[in-house]
Amino acid sequence: MGVVVILHKTMAHFAKIDSDNKVTQVDVVLNDIATDEQAGVDFLNALYGTSDVWKKTSYNTYNNTHLLDGTPFRKNFASVGYTYDSGRDAFIPPKPSYWPAADTAEGETQTEIVCNSWTLVEDTCQWEAPIPYPDDGQMYMWDEPTHQENNSLGWMLVG
Predict the structure, then answer these.
(1) Which of 16, 64, 108, 114 has most Cβ atoms within 10 angstroms of its Cβ?
(2) Do 124 and 118 contact (CB within 8 A), yes or no?
(3) What confidence tens digit (pLDDT) does each residue in 39-57 have?
(4) Phi (first) and psi of residue 42, to 5 degrees
(5) What is the DSSP letter of 119?
(6) Are the C-beta atoms of residues 27 and 16 closer than 8 Å to each other?
């Protein structure tokens, strides 16, 4: 019977940032190479033959909390579509949005609905609804048009 040896190498994650501060790509680099943030950036730019802007991001950081009880880094793990905010030194997810479930007439197209009433929580850099999610154990979804018509409503029971 053979023995399987699994080597565990730790990795650093880097987010590529475009000119609009949007994350367009997230890559991993061995910690042996990315001994600090600049070493990781230099490695990635040499690898791709570019001079792109890269920012290190923590896979274990969400909601300004490190999931393994470490130190949170840049508020949230970066994903494609997130924005890097240099003033906050944070990755911010896109404002929540959804596609309506209602049927459309033939030939009509649905329009994505952005939850414009939601606000950014500074401490976590996450979006928060203007009304707390109900805590009655039921499942709800946000309905932005309903909230715009009556700002005391928004969470709609699913099913």
Answers:
(1) 16
(2) no
(3) 999 999 999 999 999 999 9
(4) -60, -40
(5) E
(6) yes
Residues 27 and 57 placed together within one structural domain of the fold: yes
**Spatial distance between the Cα atoms of 124 and 143, rounded to a whole number of angstroms:** 23
* In-domain check, residue 2: no
Helix (H) or strand (E) holding 85: strand 83-85
Helix (H, G, I), strand (E, B) or coil at 73: coil
Residue of 83, 88, 82 whose CA lies nearest to 124: 88
Query: 126 and 113 in contact (C-beta within 8 Å)?
Result: no
Provide the residue range defining the domain that includes 104: 97-157
Task: State how far the alpha carbon of 68 is from the alpha carbons of 10, 40, 56, 58, in Å.
Answer: 14, 23, 18, 11
pTM of the full structure:
0.86
Same domain, 27 and 87: yes
DSSP-assigned letter for residue 22: B
Main-chain phi, psi angles of 61, to 5 degrees: -105, 125
Positive/negative CA dihedral, 20, 22, 41, 68: positive
Phi and psi dihedrals of 97, rounded to 5? Answer: -150, 165
3 occurs within a structural domain: no
Token pair of 3, please?
């023995």
Asked, for residue 82, whether it belongs to a domain, the answer is: yes
